[in-house]
Amino acid sequence: MDVVVIGAGQAGLSAAFHLRRAGLAPDRDFVVLDHAPRPGGAWQFRWPSLTYGKVHGMHALPGMELTGADPARPSSEVIGTYFDTYERTFDLRIHRPVDVTAVREGEGGRLLVETSEGAYATRSLINATGTWDRPFWPRYPGQETFRGLQLHTAGYPGPAAFAGKRVLVVGGGASGTQHLMEIADVAADTFWVTRREPVFREGPFGEAEGRAAVALVEERVRRGLPPQSVVSVTGLPLTDAVRAARARGILDRLPMFDRITPTGVAWDDGRTIDVDVILWATGFRAAIDHLTPLRLREPGGGIRVAGTRAVRDERVHLVGYGPSASTIGANRAGRAAVTDIRRLLRDASAAPVAAGTG
Description:
alpha/beta, six-stranded mixed beta sheet, five-stranded parallel beta sheet, 7 helices, about 25% helix, about 20% strand
């Protein structure tokens, strides 16, 4: 292949669209590999109570608008159907379910992509694997002694599972606040702890604010540091639902506890809370372990990129990573990666063949 795309979420589909538009054909010049069982990217795994109307903005994929979506329908269904229609409309021929186990140096200047359906030798790679497969579980003293249930946002089943229980939600992002507001209506009691005081953002979040937020994330990536979460840069939107939850005391935040006990959590100042469930709404990390053989990481732990290109290997592009993790950013990154890869392929084709090797 000329290009292998790993991942068929927003970023991967955007890249595939622009590859098609550039005249490359699926299954001949490029291939898109997706480990999920069906179209929808990470959206297909979202909890049923996350309806489309609760989604904080979903930018349309290039070439096809998402119109007429029922805001009361689960976002997993709305976006899954949209992605499925998109794939078929543009004949992207996604291979799924396919697990990519490693990307390493191949022969003749190609990368070798090892997968559950065999190996691909490719001249370039677009990595669009997102974060959903790497939920972040913090470690605290006593965590293994807790006798209740611990689960992560990635496995959140919806509010009904917490009826009559005392629930502690950990994490100051959008998922944490959404979980709290849902669970509070059915739980015996809820508690919220975060490492930092949450920052609620009032007023519109326009283009200028978006550019400023992206610039902050981009600076970290340029320095080879792991990307920050979106909320750490933008703050939490202060919606009518959030205002009502704050008025009811649902979003009264406690500082991070110091240890976990068999029945709950405890602080060094002597405070304790007994709970039945600890729900870790602590975010995700970039799913890039399959790139480890290429040694792209910097000492800071992240992959340094220029635009979408990995600084340590110009054949590798990361889309949906760092500043392009938003839906609109993923679209732009897909286009930018394809533009850069077309240049790389042209330069490679124009390179003279050494004597005796043709």
